[in-house]
Amino acid sequence: MKFKTHISIKDLNVWYEKHQVLNNINIDIPDKKITVIIGPSGCGKTTLLKSFNRLIDLQDGVMVSGQVFVDGENIYDEKIEVTHLRKKMGLLSQRPQVLPMSIYDNVAYSPRIHGLKNKKKLDELVEHELNEAGLWNEVKERLSGPASKLSIGQQQRLCLARGLAADPEIILGDEPTSALDPISAEKIEQRFLDLKNKYTIVLVTHNLRQAKRLADYVIFLYLGNIIEYGKADEIFKNPKYSKTKDYLNGKFIEEHKIDKELNLKGTVCPDNFVKTKVALEELEVGQVLRIIIDYEQAVIEVPKTIEYEGHKVLEVKSINRTDWEIIIEKRNDGEI
Ligand SMILES: Nc1ncnc2c1ncn2[C@@H]1O[C@H](COP(=O)(O)OP(=O)(O)OP(=O)(O)O)[C@@H](O)[C@H]1O
Ligand SMILES: [Mg+2]
Q1: Number of independent structural domains in the chain
Q2: What does DSSP say about strands 200-204 and 170-174: parallel, antiparallel, or unpaired?
Q3: Does one domain contain both 127 and 48?
Q4: Same domain, yes or no, for 194 and 288?
């Protein structure tokens, strides 16, 4: 592939304790293009993305070998300054993480840290970045209002604006639209397309249609190995390997088709159990409900009770340290 390389990965291996999750990764990521990482759940996409800005090796029990060159500099070199490196990269995660302060202060946060005090310059910068993130018109009347009052889709665009205000070269996104409604997701997608002339963008997504819409280059990762890497249109039209073909044809069925989703964050038992039951009642037998829970006890209690009522719990998985998702198939259609 002929392009200008921005990030170059050489013989990268990553272990969590004794478990190797990335095997000998060698790739070059092009400058000012969108590269999309796809692959089944647990194949190492997040790990690979986090290895680009050293968010990975700071965790206990993680071992990294190999090199990652950003602008020709090995970021795993002992001499490298991690804060300087992070400044080059903005990271968007699945759920937007706004700072507990006003909309304005979120965007002004990084420039202020780096010494910008001039009010007029800060005002201009905040407006510019909010425009870049496609949010200005929606928030210009309430810049001093709390960021947490924005919708999730707006919060994600605010995170993008905050990231851009740090003047990065690279934007990393780990499923940045998966928690958003389709309209908000489209707005974020459009921002990526507009921003790729100025930034190198690397995105993880589970959504193949989104990958097709956005990707210039695609990395297909499977069990910690790069199976295929190349131009998006070539991989989507004409994958070289059967594994890639299978994945693109939906043959990996580890992802459940969800018919209804219920966010129960902030509720406790028995409320979350009752709400789950009501949601299941609205479904037909065989349909699937996903609930999101942040109450640890419920992660054990809700599946037990629901199974007792005859439904099938397909999966209980932790999204992060505080949130879990439980996927339930409706089985019984009445009293048992
Ligand atoms: N902090 C950790 N400690 C131990 N194992 C981990 C840790 N983080 C991830 N893993 C394991 O490493 C493997 C790769 O995880 P990773 O999160 O990179 O996968 P992924 O492709 O992003 O999955 P998903 O699509 O579900 O987000 C998985 O088997 C996962 O269980
Ligand atoms: Mg992931």
Answers
A1: 2
A2: parallel
A3: yes
A4: no
d(CA 182, CA 222) in angstroms, rounded, equals 27
Question: What single string gives the DSSP state of each residue in 112-123?
Answer: HHTT---HHHHH
Q: Please state the pTM of the whole predicted model.
A: 0.76
Written as one letter, the residue type at 213 is R
Tell me: pLDDT of 132 over 70: yes
Residue 303 in this model has a pLDDT that exceeds 90: no
Residues 229 and 112 placed together within one structural domain of the fold: yes
Mean of pLDDT values over 314-326: 77
User: Could you give the CA distance from residue 38 to residue 248 in angstroms, rounded to a whole number?
Assistant: 10
Asked whether residue 167 falls in the same domain as residue 271, the answer is: no
For ligand 1, mutation pick of 13, 14, 21, 204 (most atoms within 8 Å of CB): 21
Going across the sheet that includes 62-70, the strands are: 19-30, 5-16, 62-70, 73-74
Q: Quick one: average pLDDT of 293-321?
A: 82
pLDDT recorded at residue 250 = 77
Pairing mode of beta strands 260-263, 34-38 = unpaired
- Identify which ligand lies nearest to the alpha carbon of 93: 2
Q: What is the CATH number of the domain that holds 289?
A: 3.30.110.40
Mutate to test the pocket of ligand 1, among 15, 16, 210 (most ligand atoms within 8 A of CB): 16
**Could you list the residue range(s) of the whole structural domain that residue 182 is in?**
5-248
Would you say residue 255 lies in a domain?
Answer: no
Q: For 179-206, write each residue's pLDDT tens digit.
A: 878 888 898 999 999 999 999 999 999 8
